[in-house]
Specification:
- The complex is a heterotrimer of chains A (298), B (292) and C (444).
- Chain A has 13 helices and no strands.
- Chain A is an all-alpha fold and 298 residues long.
- Chain A has two domains: 3-47, no CATH class; 65-297, MetI-like (MetI-like fold, Orthogonal Bundle), CATH 1.10.3720.
- Chain B has two domains: 16-69, no CATH class; 77-247, MetI-like fold, CATH 1.10.3720.10.
- Chain B contains 14 helices and no strands.
- The relative contact order of chain B is 0.14.
- Classes of the chains: A mainly alpha (298), B mainly alpha (292), C alpha/beta (444).
- At the A-B interface, α1, α3, α4, α5 and α7 of A face α1, α3, α4, α5 and α10 of B.
């Protein structure tokens, strides 16, 4: 490293410079180490322990049980299904709204932006009860309105497909505006010149969108996709509060199963195994998305 | 923020006909209706007596029990939990912004060994479901004895500390700090400023909008947080708003009016903060995203 | 040098983690001594905290003044909590070896087994203090508090069932409530009511996809509640369970079920006249009074109809217990409080009178209040009916897998009621499913 060529003062200086970034990281690392890393390591440890016999040593029993658990498989299928529909829907809708709102001709743009963003700042516990009242099969406002229009009631919460639909609607309601705002900002950072050049080449709006907007926004799209994917794979509030995982576990998600197992059934060791399988699945999906995005860039 | 004029990119003025414009407004208004209606309905229900909330056909206009519901809430510890929630959220927001800006600065402006490993480690937390770490974390809180408390259960620090190394914040700060020109920092170093001075006097002041955005987000996160405060704040005097409100859900009797009023009153401050600081909110949502 | 820094910080982080992991892993449950039998109430000292749900918490609060007259040196703090919030906290506290737990906690009877099975010594053994009260309590409840011959909780309220019905709607349809003895009679009445109200008012509310409460009441009537037998085997494929689910199917097939969603849906159906009857526990009286004040005088109650003439009409739905976590440092004070609230006429009737919490403690029924007519409920002495019902309730078995059973049965119920599956087949599938989830055997 050649440090012996330096004077002691210089050496001290270099030392300090090299130490600087770590010093800046100390508070974050401390908090992280104590309050995050420790619980993670500890719960990982729990997942390799048997519940009723904690001293029996390292065991794969919880993971083995997970492999044969039909309820977990159901939760996994439901969550992945949700992912495949939810993420494209919510991001697609956000993109459409962002493109519309990005038009300077429109009035009240800030008002609309504000209104669409509003659901993202509220806690779901606050609105879940409202949604349940609105979607109640026999006594809900939505069916009341549908009946008024001569349409038959829809069992929003008590039939598999309508319940999945209700779940998707609630998640879309909450997160579309948030993603829209991100896209809106990203749209505004695309230089005008690119569009002007394309117009000279005679490109239409549609062609410009695919040739300029999408490539320029690739990092943003990737980021929102990864965040929405992680969020959806961990989805808890909506299925827990709105559809109560029902009917017949049709809207059970991995996180609601984890919660139910850990706290209501008090099977914390098994629940920890569920959690770390979730982590593996989430990591795999995120990695996959990065790979796909990278390939697209080459 | 970038220029605003360039927005006609997809729909140059000439191409937007009157008809198209009306259609677009129509779509936007319908969307806005769906966004807002649940909030409206919540406030309507919050003004009903408990026995009217489940009435069918439902009330669509305000009732006369708003004040009764509010009084009921305050008689049951709402005021104290309002204070707790506000105190926790404010302290958390300030500390987490501070820690995140330190870490973000280190990641953005220094090259050092383990940089990407450490950064990745912080982001990894995003993937861990929070329910699973609650049990060991609670165990930890029950065993920590310093700072004068016999245990950290039901203490402010038990709610504030665990999420302080907020991965979103660190990511956000790193992204914005990257835009900071190195020359500026080096110039200050040439003038003899120490690393700490460079950070506080040069780097931080330019970050004000992002800091504000992150502070608001952190406040909101903590204000809305339910599960961990429920687990660790076991003393009624230490409970936060969402937990106190959820206590209205009993076995066979639920005070719907108060429940609705409680949720409305919890939502209201966030809505007001949002409207007051919407620029910061919005720049926060994107500052991290734009530059990828 | 840089490398060493890096290593240093990583190593210190690792060491820190390991130290913390090491001190976190010794989660030994504490056990408490038995009866120390302090005779002078003034000698019982300390501060105790009690957790319960909102109205239940208020009712306990009401017993504090009379408790403090007897035990002036015990300071009681009652905390009200959301329904499932109690369990979230209880589970984490038990898992942490008893940290952060109250001195007295309310647990729904059907959840008790989750805790006694997972944390066998987590709740204090009350045998030596409580066994003298055995004969006084609702026998079906007492059996649930006794685990491996040790008493781990004291029954608080019972849920003797009744068929709550709308007097005015019965009258309008020309149905005499006294004529209803069997479920078949009730179905006939339901059809009359449906016709008389032009299809608006159905017979009973059922949350088809989420709650099998009806099935549980019926199987309890028939003595095969709930999902498991006393050996812990899955008990669903028996004749009586099939009979119960078949009955539900019949009611549904005749268009007499109002399919509602969740608790809010049940309450909405009750107050908006969508159903003429609601089969539920005695605790539903409080809900009706609270949510349908305008229907005062229009509700009454009878026992659930029998499966055949002269058959059993008694059952239980719901109810809760008070337990003392073993980690408490104030067993004596906690016990004194529980004893005063639950095992005295004074305590129980205070809670009954003001909050409708139905005592599991039978001597309480001798009070006047149980023979008096209740204005809201058609001016009938309805409490007397429940008091007489208690001793006839067949025992039920829950086990720690009760919640899983509930989910599986709700699903079976929806297959039968919504998709027309044969009840016997649905129960067979449910039994198999439950065996898969719990590793339990299916009873033959």
């Amino acid at each position: 490293m050649g440090s012996q060529m330096l004077t002691p003062a210089e050496r001290r200086h270099q030392w300090r410079r090299r130490l600087t970034p770590y010093m800046f990281l100390v508070p974050a690392l401390l908090v992280f180490g104590i309050f995050m890393l420790y619980p993670i390591v500890s719960s990982l440890q729990l997942s390799f322990q048997s519940q009723l016999n904690p001293n029996s040593g390292f065991s794969f029993d919880n993971y083995r049980r997970l492999l044969g658990d039909k309820v977990f498989r159901k939760a996994l299928t439901n969550t992945v299904f949700l992912l495949l529909f939810q993420v494209p829907l919510q991001l697609g809708l956000a993109m459409v709204l962002a493109v519309i709102l990005n038009n300077a001709v429109l009035k009240f743009r800030t008002v609309f932006r504000l209104i669409y963003f509003l659901p993202a700042i509220t806690a779901l516990f606050a609105v879940a009860l409202i949604f349940r009242l609105l979607l109640n099969d026999e006594k809900g406002l939505v069916n009341y309105v549908l009946n008024g229009l001569g349409i038959q009631s829809v069992p929003w919460l008590s039939n598999a497909w309508p319940a999945k639909f209700s779940l998707i609607t609630a998640i879309t309601w909450r997160w579309t505006g948030y993603n829209m705002v991100i896209y809106l900002a990203s749209l505004q950072s695309i230089p005008d010149e690119l569009y002007e050049a394309a117009e000279l080449d005679g490109a239409g709006a549609w062609a410009k969108f695919w040739a300029i907007t999408v490539p320029m926004m690739r990092p943003t799209i990737l980021l929102t996709t990864v965040l929405s994917t992680i969020g959806t794979l961990q989805i808890f509030d909506e299925p827990y509060l709105l559809t109560r995982s029902g009917p017949s576990n049709e809207t059970l998600s991995m996180a609601t199963l984890l919660y139910r197992t850990a706290f209501q059934s008090a099977e914390i060791n098994y629940a920890s195994a569920i959690a770390y399988v979730m982590v593996l699945i989430i990591a795999a999906f995120s990695l996959l998305q990065f790979r796909i995005a990278q390939r697209g860039e080459d | 923020m970038a220029k605003t004029k360039l927005s006609d990119d997809l729909m140059p003025k000439s191409l937007v006909s009157r008809f198209q414009r009306i259609m677009i407004y129509l779509i936007l208004v319908v969307g806005a209706f769906f966004s807002l209606f649940p909030f409206y309905y919540m406030f309507v229900q919050a003004s009903q007596p408990s026995s009217e909330v489940l009435r069918f056909p439902p009330h669509l206009w305000f009732g006369d029990s708003a004040w009764t519901n509010i009084k009921g809430l305050f008689a049951n510890g709402f005021g104290r939990s309002l204070f707790n929630s506000a105190f926790i959220a404010v302290v958390y927001a300030s500390l987490s912004v501070f820690i995140a800006s330190l870490a973000g600065y280190a990641f953005a402006k220094f090259r050092f060994r383990g940089r990407s490993v450490l950064f990745g480690m912080f982001l990894l937390v995003l993937m861990i479901p929070y329910h699973v770490t609650a049990v060991p974390l609670f165990q930890l809180m029950s065993k920590i004895t310093f700072l004068g408390n016999p245990t950290w259960i039901s203490s402010y620090q038990a709610v504030i500390l665990p999420a302080l190394a907020n991965p979103f914040g660190i990511f956000l700060m790193r992204q914005s700090m990257q835009a900071l020109p190195d020359d500026l920092l080096d110039a200050a170093r040439m003038d003899g400023a120490g690393e700490w001075r460079v950070f506080t006097n040069v780097a931080l002041p330019t970050m004000r909008p992002t800091l504000a955005a992150l502070a608001i987000y952190s406040f909101m996160f903590q204000w809305n947080s339910f599960f961990w405060p429920l687990i660790v704040m076991r003393d009624k005097a230490m409970e936060t708003l969402p937990v106190r409100i959820n206590a209205l859900v009993g076995l066979s009797i639920i005070d719907y009016g108060q429940l609705m009023m409680g949720t409305a009153l919890t939502t209201l401050p966030i809505m007001m903060i949002f409207i007051a600081f919407q620029r910061q909110f919005i720049s926060g949502a994107l500052a991290g995203a734009v530059k990828g | 040098m840089v490398r060493r820094n890096m290593h240093l910080s990583l190593i210190s982080l690792l060491v820190l983690t390991l130290i913390l992991a090491a001190c976190g892993s010794d989660s030994t449950a504490t056990t408490t001594s038995g009866n120390t039998g302090s005779t002078n109430p003034a000698d019982v000292k300390g501060e105790i905290t009690v957790w319960a749900w909102n109205v239940a918490a208020k009712s306990l609060e009401a017993t504090v003044p009379s408790f403090n007259q007897k035990y002036p040196n015990v300071k009681v703090t009652i905390q009200d909590l959301g329904r499932t919030d109690v369990y979230d906290r209880l589970t984490t506290g038990m898992q942490a070896g008893g940290a952060g737990l109250p001195d007295v906690v309310a647990i729904e009877s059907d959840r008790m087994d989750v805790y006694t099975a997972t944390f066998p010594e987590g709740l204090a053994d009350l045998t030596s203090r409580a066994s003298k009260y055995e004969k006084d309590f609702d026998p079906s409840k007492w059996a649930q508090s006794k685990i491996n011959d040790k008493i781990r909780s004291i029954p608080w309220d019972s849920g003797p069932t009744g068929l709550w019905y709308r007097v005015d709607i019965f009258e309008q349809a020309g149905v005499d409530p006294k004529s209803i003895e069997t479920w078949a009679d009730l179905i006939a009445a339901g059809e009359k009511i449906l016709a008389a109200t032009n299809g608006k008012t159905k017979l009973i509310p059922v949350d088809i996809v989420a709650d099998d409460a009806g099935f549980r009441m019926m199987t309890n009537q028939l003595g095969v509640c709930c999902y498991f037998n006393s050996d812990g085997k899955i008990n669903l494929t028996n004749e009586k369970s099939v009979q119960a689910l078949t009955l539900l199917k019949e009611i549904n097939d005749k268009g007499l079920v109002a399919n509602i969603n969740g608790w809010d849906g049940t309450v909405a159906a009750t107050k908006n006249g969508d159903v003429a009857t609601v089969p539920f526990g005695v605790w539903y009286s409080g809900t009706i009074i609270d949510q349908a004040p305008d229907l005062s005088g229009k509700w009454d109650v009878m026992l659930l109809p029998a499966f055949e003439k002269g058959g059993n009409r008694a059952a239980n739905l719901g109810g809760s217990t008070l337990a003392i976590p073993a980690a408490t440092k104030n067993v004596d004070a906690a016990w004194a409080f529980v004893e005063h609230a639950l095992a005295t006429n004074e305590g129980q009737n205070l809670m009954m009178e003001k909050f409708g919490i139905w005592p599991s403690y039978q001597p309480a029924y001798s009070a006047d209040l149980y023979s008096k007519p209740v204005a809201f409920f058609n001016n009938q002495p309805i409490w007397k009916m429940f008091a007489d019902e208690i001793k006839n309730i067949p025992p039920a078995t829950y086990t720690k897998d009760y919640a899983k059973g509930q989910a599986v049965l709700a699903s079976a119920q929806s297959k039968v009621l919504s998709q027309g599956m044969d009840p016997k087949q649905a129960l067979q599938e449910a039994a198999d499913e439950l065996a898969n989830q719990t590793g339990r055997e299916i009873a033959q």
